[in-house]
Amino acid sequence: MRLLAVDTSGKTASVALVEDGRLLSLTAPAGDEQHSVALFRSLEKALSQAGRSLTDIDLYAVANGPGAFTGLRVGLTVVKGLAEMHAKPVVPVSVLEAVAESARADGLLVPLVDAYRGQIFGGLYEKNGDEVERRGSERVLGLEEFLETLMAAGAQPERSTLVSPQMERWAERLAHSSFARAARESVSPQLAAAVARRALKKFARGEALDALGLEANYVRRSDAELLWKAK
């Protein structure tokens, strides 16, 4: 089984190629090029490093959100096109699920991703070895408000681990939050390998889609929709 995984949900895009559960290559743009320009170069590099071509791919995976709208659309469009062109299945993976998958810690995990506008995308997951299960809805809120909702739902800070690719950004605010006693873990912003690992497990459970069924998980509406609704 050869799987090609793509993540364009944030500023750091990445591509991973996995064969029979083994990571063959992981690539990410070195500069600040737009995903629409850099993604194809990363795809070519990942395939070249592994000595494979697109015709060798059996399964595609993509981070379908939440994240930056433009970036998500780039990754979803490319993966949808490749999966349709080669008649291969595709597995969508939540960005927050991939962040939880990246953690070394087990138990209750609180993945956090910058949503900009002073907000975060957050969720609650439980990890037990290789298994990661969602324990609550994924939300977009202010950091402190989101943590308060977790407390109200019964999550205990001393038994939880906050996980994020941007952990240092919120260190001071977390120190004065209701989750000040929670453990913290920083993970790589290059999430494609974690997306691949989750996708393989989902595929084994029959959770793959055809290209036409692939959709984004925005969590919140796009700016265009918000402006349109305001008129």
Low-pLDDT ranges: 221-231
- Radius of gyration of CA atoms, rounded to a whole number: 17 Å
Structural class: alpha/beta
Envelope shape = globular
What integer is the average pLDDT? Answer: 91
Structural commentary:
- By secondary structure, this protein is of the alpha/beta class.
- The strands form 2 sheets. Strands 6, 7, 8, 9, 10, 11 and 12 form a 7-stranded mixed sheet that branches. Strands 3-2-1-4-5 form a 5-stranded mixed sheet, with helices on both faces.
- The chain is 33% helix and 26% strand.
- The chain starts with a strand and ends with a helix.
- Strand 1 (2-7) and strand 2 (14-19) form a beta hairpin.
- Helix 3 crosses helix 6.
Summary, kept brief:
The protein is of the alpha/beta class. Helices cover 33% and strands 26% of the residues. Helix 3 packs across helix 6.
SSE topology:
Elements: E1 2-7, E2 14-19, E3 22-27, H1 35-50, E4 59-63, H2 69-85, E5 90-93, H3 95-102, E6 107-116, E7 119-122, E8 125-128, E9 131-134, E10 139-141, H4 143-152, E11 160-164, H5 171-175, E12 183-186, H6 192-204, H7 223-230
Parallel strand pairs: 1-4, 4-5, 6-11, 11-12
Antiparallel strand pairs: 1-2, 2-3, 6-7, 6-8, 7-10, 8-9
Helix pairs in contact: 3-6
Tag the structure with descriptive keywords.
231 residues; alpha/beta; Nucleotidyltransferase, domain 5; 2 domains; seven-stranded mixed sheet; globular
